[in-house]
Design goal:
A 9-stranded mixed beta sheet has the order 7-8-6-9-10-11-12-13-14. A 6-stranded mixed beta sheet has the order 15-16-20-17-18-19, sandwiched between helices. A 5-stranded mixed beta sheet has the order 1-5-4-3-2. About 35% of the residues lie in helices and about 25% in strands. Helix 6 links the parallel strand 7 and strand 8. It folds into 3 domains: about 90 residues, MurE/MurF, N-terminal domain (Udp-n-acetylmuramoylalanyl-d-glutamate--2,6- Diaminopimelate Ligase, Chain: A, domain 1), CATH 3.40.1390; about 220 residues, Mur-like, catalytic domain (UDP-N-acetylmuramoyl-L-alanine:D-glutamate ligase), CATH 3.40.1190; about 140 residues, Mur ligase, C-terminal domain (Protein-Tyrosine Phosphatase, Chain A), CATH 3.90.190.20. About 50% of the residues are buried. With about 475 residues, it is of the alpha/beta class.
Length: about 475
């Protein structure tokens, strides 16, 4: 599909353009920032970042068939005969392209953030709305100051529903993303001490997440977790952003929630039923293909978004019967390792305290549901916890003991230090995930169920790959 023409580019960039040498019309199917990929019919945007400069890879981009490039280097512009647009600042131009794309779309846009579960909710929303019309969503984890504008730049013109994930590590990172995306719905899964090392306290994290309300369209909706201790704080921030009080909605087990989770009935590890009561309305039940109670809880956001945007939410909810967690984010793997049948909960992509605790609860629940003899937690360090790191790792291992996890394999300095408190649990520590991976097969018994999780830098997927 053609997303950009010469006319579109020149119109979108009119305040940024210094010059161009475009000799004919263009048919651009994608805007890309990676010079290594196949760039046929694509535009390469050379961004000068903190770690690298896209201008250094301009030749590579054209060798990979880029049709045109946007650059900010005037000397390079003079030397290169390829299709180029010279701008004052390529990063500013990037945002102008995203802004232009947003203005051109009639799509209903849902923005999602939160300390835990935002990617899972994005995937559920994508699946649910695909039953309602042309749906487009953030690819992978492209949820930051690069990923959000890139998502908007490449949104097809006929998109009816767009699901945009927004992440942050610091204050004032989500506001420009929300202002750019101008969502019709802004939802926050929960507030927890993720990236707490970059903040003075947990309330600052809530403040940072509340920035998602900044760009909400007039008459747009804010969706907030009523069970979270920062519910009142977030509600106040939504009101400060001039969101109408009747459009600030809540979800949770709290009976005052607009979307109240009345009951969860777990049938198997891949089949549960959730019963929801909409305020002043009848109860509705739907099936979801997981036993993970955090995922089921977060599905209330999907229910709410469908209720607000489409006439027939039941059709959208049907998609939840067949959802599956993405790789590294709770995917269930059934493996045969040296004639031993094991099940792995692959939650290896990243970790913070709240998601670690939620995952351990899930391991404990799944052991009972599947009637397994042994549960094994394979855990790596959690990063960006600052002065709370030691306390948080100890708290996690105390929970692990309380849940009576049978065996614990720990990787990383922080986990090794915290392991001193383990008394009632059999455990082994390793310097890193690679060392753990070398030995993990030696600890397995037929029928084990494993939960694997750690911060991105720990690469806990090493332990899974060696078992595969």
């Amino acid at each position: 599909m053609i997303l950009w023409t010469k006319t579109d580019l020149l119109e979108a960039l009119q305040t940024q353009i210094v010059g161009h040498n475009l000799k004919s019309d263009l048919a651009i199917e994608e805007i890309a920032i990676d010079s290594r990929k196949d760039l046929k019919n694509k535009l390469f945007l050379a961004i000068k970042g903190e770690n690298t400069d896209g201008h250094l890879f301009l030749n590579q981009a054209f060798e990979n068939s880029a049709q045109v490039a946007i650059i900010q280097d005037a000397e390079l512009f003079k030397k290169t005969s390829q299709n180029l647009i010279l701008v004052k600042n390529s990063f500013a131009a990037f945002y102008k392209l995203a802004e232009y794309s947003r203005k051109k779309t009639d799509a209903k846009i849902i923005a999602i953030t939160g300390s835990v579960g935002k990617t899972g909710v994005k995937e559920m929303l994508k699946s649910a709305f695909a039953n309602q019309g042309k749906t487009y969503a953030t690819i992978g984890n492209l949820n930051n100051h690069i990923g959000v504008p890139l998502t908007l730049c490449n949104m097809p013109h006929d998109t009816q529903f767009a699901i945009i994930e927004m992440g942050m590590n610091h204050l004032r990172e989500i506001k420009p993303l929300s202002d750019l995306a101008r969502p019709h719905i802004a939802a926050i899964t929960t507030i927890a001490p993720a990236h707490i090392g970059n903040f003075n306290n947990e309330e600052e994290i809530a403040l940072a997440k509340s920035e998602i309300f900044s760009g909400l369209e007039p008459k747009g909706f804010a969706i907030i977790n009523h069970d979270n201790k920062y519910y009142d704080f977030l509600r106040k921030k939504a009101l400060e952003c001039k969101i109408e009080e009747k459009n600030i909605l809540s979800f949770g087990k709290n009976i005052e929630s607009n979307y109240c989770l009345k009951n969860i009935e777990i049938k198997s590890f891949e089949q549960s039923f959730a019963t929801i009561k909409i305020k002043n309305n009848a109860e509705t039940s739907y099936e979801i293909s997981t036993a993970n109670q955090t995922t089921i809880f977060n599905s209330l956001i999907v229910f709410a978004c469908l209720d607000l945007l489409v006439a027939n939410k039941i059709n959208g909810l049907k998609s939840l019967k067949t959802i599956s967690a993405p790789k590294g984010r709770g995917a269930i793997l059934n493996l045969n390792v040296q004639n031993k049948n094991i099940i792995i909960i692959d939650d290896s992509y990243n970790a913070n305290v709240a998601s670690m605790h939620s995952g351990l609860q899930y391991l404990s629940e799944l052991k009972k549901i599947l009637n397994k003899k042994r549960s094994i937690a394979v855990l790596g360090d959690m990063f960006e916890l600052g002065t709370k790191s030691e306390e948080s790792h100890v708290e996690t291992l105390k929970l692990l003991q309380n849940l009576k996890i049978d065996l614990t394999l720990l990787a990383g300095e922080e986990m090794i230090k915290a392991a001193k408190i383990l008394e009632k649990t059999e455990y082994k520590t390793f310097a890193n995930s690679s060392d753990l991976a070398v030995e993990i097969k030696n600890f397995l018994q037929d029928g084990d169920i494993l939960f694997v999780k750690g911060s991105r830098g720990m690469k806990m997927e090493n332990a899974i790959e060696i078992l595969k």
